[in-house]
Amino acid sequence: KELRGRPLAIAEATKGIGISENDFDAFMRWMEIPGPEGSGQILNMASKVSETARFGALTFDQGVALIQGSMVLVNYPRAWLTAVQRSLKALLDPESRFGLFDDTTKFGRENIETVQQYGGGIGIGVDLFDAVNPGGLVNKALRSDRMPSYVNVPMKSLIERFQASFEVFMTVARLEIAKTFKYKVDMGEMSAQDVVDFANKFTGVTSSRALGVKSTQRQIESAAFALAPRYFRAITGLMVDATQGGFRGEQARKSMAKFFGASVGAYVGIAAALGQTPKLDPRSSLKGGDGGKFMTVEINGHDVGLGSKPISLMRHLFKAVADPSQLF
């Protein structure tokens, strides 16, 4: 009881203590302090800080097409090209994103039709911009009276442009992927829900709330996974689908196989262009493998590898298969 309301004291008192899942749940309920969605003050603040870190690291990074969109490029190049075009247009003119569903244009009418076809399930928001949405720390800072207008106004405009560009790319990619399977849905060969689920996971978005994940767990994930917990959950879910049957399993296996093959091919090509020997042995360096240098090249004394969460998970998977001891 003496620790209630003292976050640092609670963290110090519980450090290194092994407790059961039931005891942990009981402790979390005891620790909770009134806040958004009934969440604990500690987790709420940790989640907000993590959101702000994601904002700082990724908001002005225009690598979405070649990082988050890398699987789209390999598997659906036409969808990728359309998404890039609309994304660049949104960067220059953020208002153009509303044209995605403007029924006065052919592009808008096709998208409205797609969304209606799939019950409005296309397009769950990404979590890379939570900090600038209502309730986020960056949003509060920009709305503060202490923020000078000569800083506030241009910063809001700049953030809006990059946010629109990122979200338009992901939205258009999902819509274009869904369109490729529309004829099969019309023929009854697959369900619209399966297509929606695949398109969302494939582009790295999923709704933790819709999956029934409690607010406390969502905030733990937000605080623990510094990059993007929903993106991580979506890509992991796609890999899990690859072990299943049906449409989602078939498409997940095909897309992951093409992406992994293309990634290895691209890496080998880059290594050859730099005159370096490809590092393709995932075993630890103690056992004669490449260890942490697996699938990297040396540039100015630094080991650099291809980016994106799927490639990161692929590296871990290869390492686990080649040398399970690295997991422990």
Your description of this structure?
- There is one protein chain.
- Helix 10 (192-202) packs parallel to helix 13 and helix 12 (229-241) crosses helix 13 (246-273).
- It is globular and about 60 Å long.
- A two-stranded antiparallel sheet has the order 1-2.
- With 328 residues, the protein is an all-alpha fold.
- It has 14 helices and two strands.
- The longest helix has 32 residues, at 149-180.
Report the major sheet: 2 strands, antiparallel
Q: Which strand-content bin applies to the residues?
A: under 5%
Structural class: mainly alpha
Instruction: Name the helix and strand elements from N-terminus to C-terminus, one letter apiece.
Output: HHHHHHHHHHHHHEEH
Instruction: Return Rg in Å.
Output: 22 Å
Give the number of helices.
Answer: 14
Shape: globular
Tell me roughly what share of residues is in helical segments: 55-70%
Strand tally is 2
